[in-house]
Amino acid sequence: MPFPDNRPDVELFELAVAGDESAFLVLYDRMKTPVFRYAYYMTGSKSSAEEVTQEVFLTLLQKRARFNPRQGDLGAFIFGIARNLVRRIDRRERPYEPLPDDADSLAPPVRTVAECSTDLIKNQAVEHVRSAVASLPEHYRQVVVLCDLLEMSYADTATRLGCAVGTVRSRLNRAHKLLAGKLKLLRESQPAFRNTGTEGCLI
Hints:
Helices cover about 65% and strands about 0% of the residues. With about 200 residues, it is mostly helical. It has two domains: about 10-95, Rna Polymerase Sigma Factor, Chain: A, CATH 1.10.1740.10; about 105-195, Arc Repressor Mutant, subunit A (Orthogonal Bundle), CATH 1.10.10.10. The radius of gyration is 20 Å and the shape is elongated.
């Protein structure tokens, strides 16, 4: 008989730490995608996101005593683990350098547009967008990832980050201005990208 997958997260967690493999698999299947997407957007690396996702669930089972359902939901607790792991990876690898602020340094290698397919142009634009997000200071990157990319509400984002809703709004506004400035330089230096759209920009 299949394990029922409509049980609350906390109940699945309690069963999982007690050794119920079916409960763990249901919980993992329910939460792995948001954890992976968050880690991917924050690090810009698929391999790092896979590492974070794996370690989140190992840590979750190993540190059962630290989770208290009366002090918050399991999703917030899992996010906290992922956030700490992402910070560790940032310190260890720092895969992105900040984007330069001058248009000349953003220019692509010398080549004609005719030599590029439309898909290639779009892919290059996508990489610049991802790099622009990854180049933001962490406190700005967090709100962009959570609000814009993971589509969390301001209230949920504030809960995850442990700050006020007003702080989330303020940081997001500043982050949007920083991103707009970086991408404006990109558009000005690479006019062929202007009409490529944003489809497929983020997973």
